[in-house]
Specification:
The structure is a single chain. This protein is elongated. It has one domain (about 10-70). The longest helix has 18 residues, at about 30-45. Helix 2 packs antiparallel against helix 3 (about 30-45). By secondary structure, it is an all-alpha fold. The protein has 4 helices and no strands.
C-alpha cells in the first residue's frame, strides 16, 4: 500500500489491533511495532496540514488534538 497511489488509505489500521495482539501473544516486539506503525500511518495521513478540510473535521471531533499532532513530517 505504500506505492500504489492511495495516499489516504486507512485499511492498514483495520488490522493494527490484531497485529499488536499477535505480537504480544507471541512475544515478538516487531509485530507490536508494526501494528502501532499501521495505526499511526493511517491517522497521520488523515490529520495533516495538506488536508485543511479533513484536519478541521478531526479537530471538531477530537478537541484534544494539539498543534504537534498536525505537524508536517
Amino acid at each position: 500500500m505504500n506505492c500504489d497511489g492511495e495516499w489516504i488509505d486507512a485499511r492498514q489500521s483495520l488490522f493494527a489491533e490484531l497485529i499488536i495482539e499477535y505480537g504480544r501473544v507471541l512475544g515478538v516486539d516487531e509485530y507490536v511495532q508494526r501494528g502501532l506503525a499501521a495505526m499511526r500511518a493511517s491517522f497521520a495521513m488523515m490529520y495533516c496540514p495538506e488536508l485543511p478540510k479533513a484536519k478541521k473535521q478531526w479537530e471538531a471531533t477530537h478537541p484534544f488534538l494539539t498543534r504537534i499532532d498536525g505537524r508536517k513530517y
